Amino acid sequence: MALFGNAHTVDPASAQRDYAKLLGQGEQIQAAYQLIRDTILFTDRRLIFVDKQGITGKKVEYHSVPYKSITHFAVETAGHFDLDAELKIWISSNATPIEKTFTKGVDIYEVQAILTQFVAK
């Protein structure tokens, strides 16, 4: 399962071009992470989960979460035997968090700092 949840950093400028049709006027991607098939976008307004579905991945769900809807979040750093870091995000009115796994090459503290910056507004 870990293989399918691992993420790596994507250049925000490249993500800005690739996902321009999803963004509102003036909205900027601050950070982006690519999973095997899916993408997580942190914009200056919201968090967007791009979920490719099906065998071909042609069907795509775009899940937009305004930062004000995030009630709390947690990060779990990588360890000696577990090389992946985890991010859990709780959305208002939902007891089950959204969970994403990041490879050791991704700075989970950077992810946490981005969320802190926008959730605290």
UniProtKB/TrEMBL annotation:
InterPro entries: PHb (IPR012544), PHb_sf (IPR037063). Pfam families: bPH_1. It comes from the Bacteria. Residues 3-119 form the Bacterial Pleckstrin homology domain. This is PH domain-containing protein.
